[in-house]
Amino acid sequence: MKNRILFIVVFLVSGFAMAQVQFDAKPSKKKLGVNERLRVDFIMNEDGDNFEPPSFSDFTVVGGPNQAVSNSWINGKRSYSKTYSYFLAPKKTGKFRIGQAEITIEGEVYKTLPFEVEVTAAVDEPTDGNNSTYIASENLHLVAEISNTNPYLNEAITVVYKLYVSPRINVSDWRQIDNPKFSDFWSQNIDMQRLQVENGEYQGEPYRYVILRKTVLYPQKTGKLNIEPLTLSVSVEVPGDRRDIFGNRFYETVDKTIAAGNRTIEVKPLPEEGKPPGFTGAVGKNLKLKVTVDKNELRATESLQAKVQVTGQGNMKLFDLPPLNVPATMEQYEPEYVEHVNTNLSGMYGSIFNTYTLVPQAKGKYPIPPLSFSYFDLDSESYRTLTSDEILIDVGSAPAGRASSVSGSVAQQAPVTGSQFRYIKLNANLKPIGESAFIGSPLFWSLFALPLVLIPLAIFFGKRREAKAGDLRGNRVRKADRLARKYLSEAKRNLGDQKKFYDSLERALHNYLKAKLHIQTSEMSKEHIRDLLTSRGVAAGTVTDFIKLLESCEFARYTPSSSVAMRQDYDKAVEVISEIDKQV
Questions:
Q1: Are residues 374 and 288 in the same domain?
Q2: How are beta strands 297-299 and 391-396 bridged, if at all?
Q3: Contact, 229 vs 261, CB < 8 A?
């Protein structure tokens, strides 16, 4: 019984070890001209003996066998590779079969799979399978993987840029030449702590790859939209023509420029059927509407806070919250907008809310009517409308002497109580004025001369005020400057913090346009903004500067920026907003 168990264990272990051995034949191409060269690599992941190549009867061996060994550790795992390379010149055109190669590893014989190669007529520009640049091109690939090429308007998609590197070559360094451009998209780069090398496949072959960038995009237009490529300059170490005394080839470094290629996205419009009247462009999943108050009972002229909040996953920063409606006898102030939104590969998620300050002016019961919020649900591909509950506010009498009660629409003074004058001191302890005569005293002459001094000053400041009021251009400049600094105050506070500064700057530019041109966030594509500003009479140079500022906010998500550049962008934003306000 023990011998049987031991046999089974040895059999399973040996079977597992055998299953880990890989021995493959990889041609550099499967279709070539008769005047080109073919490279065939026989790769194994364990060291072996008695290598037997196939018969290359239809080819002439012009190089090889060259032997290369790679032994590396990636993330704590050992990676071994041994390669025999042959360089072949075809003898004639046609389809030819290259048979099996053999190798003995730990007493077991392994064979590669046969494959076919098609040899065509001579080509105009032959490529040499032994050329370093060609080898780098065939073994290095930059790919843009897109999660969804047919999304709805304002539906999140993800672009992941991967650099694939074949085990035949090594990458020593890379640098970015050109950033991808996401025109007509709202984009958010996902922060990556560090680059990590992983094992994978590219077109069915084993490769190593590293994820360089992850970006979430929200299309802002329908139809075919183009994603321009990411371009890199990569230093690649490839086997060269020189060999050492043992016949092993030296590696040489080749600088190769690669690009991810243009990608086209077909964006579907949101359906018109069933679109609610109050729809503001919200698209997402599991969105929730919540309206809350910090107190349900208070006295007149006291304040309470009402919060209108939407939570869930979707284009959280790209739609407007429904406005709060309250009775006319309740004073309402402009809301404070706050967003707690994070971004991952699924898109934006979190919450956004408006906080209103409300002040009831009289005693009574005040209902806050239900709010409705509509969004396009991506799961069901239909519109959904959420409705909040009605909130009843119970308002008591105002504190004595501070408020008024209301009867109908006419405010009446609250009755006076005995304690209303409790803060007046009844015993004044008055003291008589001294016996000296007032006429002729210093106080008398001071009061006498005071009008003589004040009259010239009043005339002087009156003329200055009239001159200032008549300076229409100067008033417009000052008003525009105040408006620009109002919108850019948050960005100014975040100078020095690149991410917060450019987020604040972009939000300030959008809020200014919303207030000035009365447009929604979903309409803020750069082309639409350019058309609107031009139609309002804004100078072409000012429009170009505004668009460049928006592009600077986009580029800042991917490239580092200095404090000097941030200060320049801030000053430019102040200048551009001031110019637009003067011209519109």
A1: yes
A2: parallel
A3: yes
**Domain end (from 102, 126, 150):** 126
Q: In sequence order, which ranges of 471-497 are alpha helices (DSSP H)?
A: 472-487, 489-493
Q: Are 342 and 350 in contact (CB under 8 A)?
A: yes
Domain CATH code at residue 115: 2.60.40.10
CB-based burial, 126-144: b 16+ in 10 Å, e otherwise: ebebbbbebbbbbbbbbeb
Q: Which pLDDT score, from 0 to 100, does residue 417 have? A: 45
| 3-state DSSP assignment of residue 186 | strand
Pair of tokens at residue 186:
């709202």
In this prediction the pTM is 0.52
Structural domains of the chain, count: 4
For residue 335, the surrounding DSSP H or E stretch is none
Percentage of the chain with pLDDT > 70? Answer: 80
Q: How far apart are CA 241 and CA 128, in angstroms?
A: 12
Q: Which residues contact 168 (CB under 8 A, 6 or more apart)?
A: 41, 68, 83, 135, 139, 238, 239
Q: In terms of domains, do 335 and 355 share one? A: yes
Rounded to an integer, what is the distance from CA 102 to the centroid of its chain?
52
The gap from C-alpha 426 to its chain's centroid, in whole angstroms, comes to 68
DSSP collapsed to 3 states, 203-251: CCEEEEEEEEEEEEEEECCCEEEEECCCEEEEEEEEEEEEECCCCCEEE
Contact indicator for 88, 60 with CB cutoff of 8 Å: yes
DSSP secondary structure, 272-285, as one string: STT--TT--S-EEE
Please report, for residues 278, 340, 351, 490, 507, the alpha-carbon distance to residue 337 in angstroms, rounded to integers and kept in the order given: 20, 10, 11, 13, 12
**Does residue 355 contact residue 338 with C-beta atoms inside 8 Å?**
yes
Q: What's the CA gap between 193 and 75, in Å, rounded?
A: 16
Range in 206-215, 257-266, 456-465 with the lowest mean pLDDT: 456-465
In this prediction, residue 413 has a pLDDT band, given cuts at 50, 70 and 90, of very low
Cα-based distances in Å from 332 to 133, 310, 324, 359: 70, 20, 9, 7
